[in-house]
Amino acid sequence: MSTIYQFSTFETFKNRGFDGCGSVKELLEHGDIGFGTYHALDGEMIILEGVSYKADGDCCIQRADENDRTPFATISDFKPDTYIEMGEFTDMSDLCRQLDEQMKSQIYERCFIGRLDGRFKAIEIHSVWPVERPYEALDEIVGRQKCVTLKGITGTLVGVRCPEWAEGKNFVGWHFHFLSKDHEWGGHVNQVSGDQLTGRFKICNQIECIDHH
C-alpha cells in the first residue's frame, strides 16, 4: 500500500508545535520527495531526488544538514503512476482546478504526491526566518514574511494533495513548494502562472506518522 509519511500532524504544528521532533536523516529514510519546515520555522523545506533543501527567509536555497530537525514534514518514495501534461494556467486556483480535473477518477479518497516541472511565467513564493519562544501563532508569523516574485523561471513544484479525511493530519487540497532548476530560489508557493508543465504523481492510500526517538 502506497503511503505518505510525516513527522507530527498539521493540527499539532498549527498550534505552535514548532520544535523539531525528528531529523532530516530520519525523514529521508522514508522517501525522496516531499516538503515541510525546520526547527523553530527556520526556513521552508523542499525534498527533491533525495536531497533536503532549505529556503531561508529571503527564499535563497542551501542544502540542509542531515542533523537539522523538523517539527512537521511530509515525504514519500517517488514511484509515479500518474502522468500529466498541463496546458496554460493563469493562477494557483486554475492550476489546482486543472489538476483535479485530470485526476478526478481517484481524487476523493486518495492522496497524491509528486512534481510538476517546467517554465513558469510568474511565481510568488515566501519562506520564514527562525522564530523564538514563546512562539506566536502561525498566521501572524507567516503574515509578515516577505514575498518574492520570480518571472520566466524554470523549476519544479513539489506538490501534495490530501482529501477531506486527512483533515488535521495534513493540508486538505493542494499544497506546493518550489525549487528553481539552478537551486538558487525556493519556498512555499503563494501564486503561480505558466503554460507548459510535465507532471508526475504517485497515488497514496494512507498517511502514517513516523515514530521518532
Automatic annotation (TrEMBL):
Keyword vocabulary terms for this entry: Acetoin biosynthesis, Decarboxylase, Lyase
Gene Ontology molecular functions: acetolactate decarboxylase activity
Reaction(s) this enzyme catalyzes, per UniProt: (2S)-2-acetolactate + H(+) = (R)-acetoin + CO2
Recorded metabolic or biological pathway in which this protein acts: Polyol metabolism; (R,R)-butane-2,3-diol biosynthesis; (R,R)-butane-2,3-diol from pyruvate: step 2/3
EC number: 4.1.1.5
Pfam families with a match to the protein in the record: AAL_decarboxy (PF03306)
Gene3D superfamilies named in the record: Hypothetical protein, similar to alpha- acetolactate decarboxylase, domain 2
An annotated GO BP: acetoin biosynthetic process
Family the entry assigns: Belongs to the alpha-acetolactate decarboxylase family.
Protein name: Alpha-acetolactate decarboxylase
Species: Eubacterium limosum
